[in-house]
Design goal:
This protein has 858 residues and is of the alpha/beta class. It has four domains: 121 residues, Response regulator (Rossmann fold, 3-Layer(aba) Sandwich); 183 residues, Response regulator (Rossmann fold); 303 residues, Rhopdopsin 7-helix transmembrane proteins, CATH 1.20.1070; 167 residues, no CATH class. It is built from 24 helices and 23 strands. The strands form seven sheets. Strands 7-6-8-9-10-13-14-15 form an eight-stranded mixed beta sheet, sandwiched between helices. A three-stranded parallel beta sheet has the order 3-4-5, covered by helices on one side. The chain has a three-stranded mixed beta sheet with strand order 16-20-19. A hairpin with a 4-residue loop joins strand 21 and strand 22.
Length: 858
């Protein structure tokens, strides 16, 4: 009380209030008197905790912020790191939302917020777009029903979502009253409300021990219910849940007065209290602040900000009824959990957002193993080609195809195939440690490049040599042999003899050396190139169906590991440009030398076809795999694998299959006879310059013993025909017909020669009488060595040929007044030349004489 002028007593009714608002605060400030304290049992706004605005306010009703620590504890229990707040725009809910955001920031939980005023439809659409899964609702019960109805229509309920509502709603709050006209039925609302949680400060003690009033919480509730009318429902009675708080607020006031009276000096009584007596007011404030007793609402105590410190009750809606899940004590931060919660999924609480699982994009296992099978087959073919190339190295067709160069090509093809095993790693089921990834990047690229250099370089060297020989050397000189199987080349002005294998080896060494130099420069210049490649990830998010079961809401996060350098585009341009120049130049050389055939590179035409295949496939595959489909591991690996396998299979097939067919169809003896006959014919020409020549005839052979043996070793016609193709057989028959025609012409010429000889004999006999008067005529003799034979050789392109040797021998008898008689013998020799020998007519260089018989024969 306060004694004013005239002895009027002024009473202040603000010591016990239901609610506190700004009007009450302003009225206290306008009236220039202060109250020692005020106790509220119905105010829960967090704004009332501000001691600057409400310095003497205490509340037995817990503040709305008191539930935030409980919510945070549940978030941590269920391992939720993302929470969304949906609130109405009232200040009480805004303060609670801000406090919850601050707590989440401190504990590492991401808290987002959406607000609405009146209609929550737009806010619900936003929640769906943001993929909100754990939603805390802060609004009054009317807005709560609107939110629940919209949640049903927007499918924001069920196994993916968890809702938290305020706990002081009535137990049947979700049933829509008829006057609200919601677009949802009671069943729909109940379906959407299933398994939601509520947090509420304990307003009725469940302890069986007696409180300060001598009653337990249940006894107080029973007495209160008995005072209600029989037809009223306590759950729907306004203020019924907060009644224990009001009862304990009265006890707090009584205990505060009792405490103050006991602490006052003996000469001062509580009844002497006036509003300007600051000493009694301070004692009253301290007594209320230190209040601690067991009330019907639980333990009653206040914080420094005047807020009630109470336990929080957690409930869950299960089949239309609230079930207590546990309690959380803010003072001790202990959670008492009963473990009765239920979820839509048997795997526990839903995730706080869409589950993002890392999925490393690797080559599919079936693709990798399929390529591995073909790669093993390719390695087997390469090994077989290597064994074949070395086993039959004595055969002419192998010798004249540069077997050393073929071995290099086989090695390169094997390296290219082996690189496929590394290209497909990591694959499904085949994981590699992260530290091995840079080594893998360097190894698979280096092996492929070195293998390509060996394989393509060996073929490039062959066509290069053929092209250079055709451009700079005489065709006759390029086709002749020296030292059996080594060609006679002259690439310099001084006509120095150089082996083609030496030239090929030099060219391949230069190509490989250039490649090694480029790789060394890459490692030297770029700190992130090749050897020190770091893992670079390209991340793309793909929406996919749940991978395990129907309860999972999963999105895959594909992670693609790429071999990436700091200057990736620059190095790709340099390497591709260099390789493309080699491929294009190889195409040009193969095209230019397509019609050229050399004995010591007898497979140059087939090698040219292999170069066409490799160049075209490589020119297409290189840019596609490095620039277009680099981020698609399956397509990239399949593209590279098909290109490598096709190039190696076709190259090995073109180079070795014809040789294999020839060796299988032609016996070694035939091959040796062909080589021996070629050498014998050439050597015989040189022999004719130094020794007399004897007549060689197909019917009557008069030769030396080695010549007889050589001719006896000649293969028969059936053996030759078995080693011929259809085109070769046609050429053979054509040459055979020409030879028969030539034989007939020779017989006619011989007949005419005999007739001429008879006429000459008669004329000579008639003129014998004149011979004595004229005198002896000097005999003219011509040695064989002055008139070597004329040899006509016709050879096709596929090992078979015919040589017709015409020997002209003059009689040793002295003749007078006439030219020497002529004996013409024709030797028909069927020979099999080498694979790529160029057909030509060969004649002895010293055949420079003429005679009447020569004129007749020609």
């Amino acid at each position: 009380m306060n004694k004013g002028d005239g002895g009027k007593i002024v009473r202040n009714p603000n010591l016990l209030r239901n609610d506190i608002n700004e009007e009450w605060s302003s009225s206290i400030k306008e009236k220039h008197f202060s109250i020692p304290f005020s106790v509220s049992y119905g105010a829960s706004s967090p704004a009332l905790s501000n001691r600057e605005r409400f310095p003497t306010l205490f509340r037995t009703h817990p503040t709305a912020n008191m539930q935030n620590p409980t919510r945070m504890r549940l978030f941590e229990k269920f391992r939720w790191k993302k929470v969304t707040i949906l609130q109405s725009v009232e200040e009480v809910f805004t303060s609670t939302a801000k406090d919850l955001e601050e707590l989440g920031r401190r504990r590492g939980i991401r808290v987002e917020r959406q607000s609405f005023y009146g209609d929550p439809t737009d806010a619900m659409k936003t929640l769906r777009r943001q993929d909100a899964r754990v939603i805390v609702g802060l609004f009054y019960v009317t807005e709560a029903r609107k939110v629940l109805c919209q949640a049903y229509h927007h499918k924001l309920y069920g196994r993916k979502y968890t809702w938290f509502f305020i706990g002081w709603y009535a137990d049947t709050w979700y049933i829509p009253p008829s006057d609200e006209h919601l677009n949802c039925t009671a069943d729909q609302m109940a379906k959407a409300a299933q398994y939601h949680f509520t947090t509420e400060s304990v307003m009725l003690s469940r302890d069986e021990n007696a409180t300060i009033s001598g009653m337990t919480g249940k006894e107080f509730q029973t007495r209160l219910t008995a005072m209600l009318s029989p037809d009223s429902d306590p759950a729907n009675t306004g203020g019924f849940p907060e009644a224990p708080l009001a009862y304990d607020a009265l006890w707090a006031l009584a205990l505060a007065f009792n405490c103050t009276r006991n602490r006052l000096p003996p000469n001062i009584r509580l009844e002497q209290f006036t509003y300007d007596n600051q000493k009694i007011a301070d004692i009253l404030f301290e007594c209320v602040k230190n209040t601690l007793f067991r009330g019907v609402s639980g333990k009653v105590m206040f914080s420094d900000s005047g807020d009630r410190i109470a336990r929080t009750q957690i409930e869950q809606m299960q089949n239309g009824k609230y079930v207590v899940m546990g309690f959380y004590d803010t003072t001790t931060q202990e959670l008492e959990w009963y473990g009765k919660e239920k979820w839509y999924s048997s795997k526990g609480p839903p995730p706080d957002s869409t589950i993002v699982r890392k999925s490393f994009l690797t080559v599919a296992s079936h693709l990798y193993y399929s390529v591995a099978v073909f790669a093993f087959i390719g390695l087997g073919l390469a090994l077989g080609a290597f064994i074949f190339n070395n086993k039959y190295s004595f055969r002419g067709i192998i010798v004249h195809s540069q077997p050393q160069c073929n071995n290099i090509m086989i090695t390169g093809c094997s390296l290219c195939i082996a690189s496929l095993f590394l290209m497909g790693l990591p694959s499904e089921g085949i994981a590699l440690p992260r530290s091995a990834f840079p080594i893998l990047c360097h190894s698979r690229i280096s092996i492929l490049m070195i293998g390509f250099t060996f394989a393509y370089g060996s073929m490039f060297a062959k066509v290069w040599i053929v092209h250079r020989m055709s451009a700079n050397e005489n065709q006759q000189l390029a086709s002749r042999q020296k030292d059996e199987y080594k060609p006679l080349l002259s690439t310099y002005e001084d006509k120095e003899d150089v082996s083609p294998w030496d030239t090929i080896r030099t060219l391949i060494a230069s190509v490989v050396g250039r490649q090694a130099f480029v790789a060394a420069e890459l490692r030297k210049v770029s700190s992130n190139a090749y050897g020190t490649l770091a893992i670079s990830r390209r991340i793309n998010i793909l929406n996919q169906e749940p991978t395990v079961g129907i309860d999972d809401d999963v999105m895959l996060l594909p992670i693609l590991e790429l071999c990436q350098s700091s200057q990736q585009e620059v190095w790709i341009g340099l390497v591709l440009g260099y390789k493309c120049l080699l491929l294009v130049f190889g195409l040009f050389l193969a095209y230019e030398s397509r019609n050229l055939k050399l004995r010591y590179v007898n497979d140059s035409r087939l090698v040219g076809l292999a170069i066409y295949n490799v160049a075209i496939l490589s020119l297409v595959t290189g840019p596609v795999t490095t620039l277009l489909i680099r981020g698609q591991p399956n397509a990239n690996f399949a593209f590279v694998a098909v290109t490598v396998l096709l190039c190696t299979y076709i190259s090995l097939g073109l180079v070795f299959v014809p040789k294999l067919r020839f060796i299988c169809r032609v016996p070694p003896s035939v091959d040796e006879v062909c080589e021996h006959m070629q050498k014998m014919i050439l050597d015989y020409f040189f022999l004719l310059n130094t020794s007399p020549l004897r007549c060689i005839n197909e019917d009557s052979i008069s030769t030396s013993e080695p010549e007889r043996k050589a001719l006896k070793a000649r293969p028969n016609r059936s053996t030759m025909m078995r080693g011929m193709s259809k085109s070769d057989k046609k050429i053979y028959e054509h040459l055979k017909n020409e030879n028969e025609t030539l034989q007939k012409q020779i017989e006619e010429k011989e007949k005419r020669i005999r007739q001429c000889k008879e006429r000459l004999d008669r004329l000579q006999h008639k003129k014998d009488s004149l011979s004595n008067s004229v005198g002896a005529t000097q005999t003219q003799s011509v040695s064989v060595r002055d008139h070597p034979p004329l040899v006509l050789c016709v050879a096709n392109n596929n090992y078979n040929g015919i040589c017709v040797i015409r020997f002209e021998n003059y009689s040793e008898d002295k003749e007078t007044y006439s030219t020497p008689t002529t004996l013409t013998a024709t030797a028909l020799i069927e020979v099999q030349l080498n694979n790529e020998s160029t057909g030509r007519y060969m004649a002895l260089e010293n055949d420079n004489y003429s005679s009447s018989s020569d004129e007749i024969l020609l």
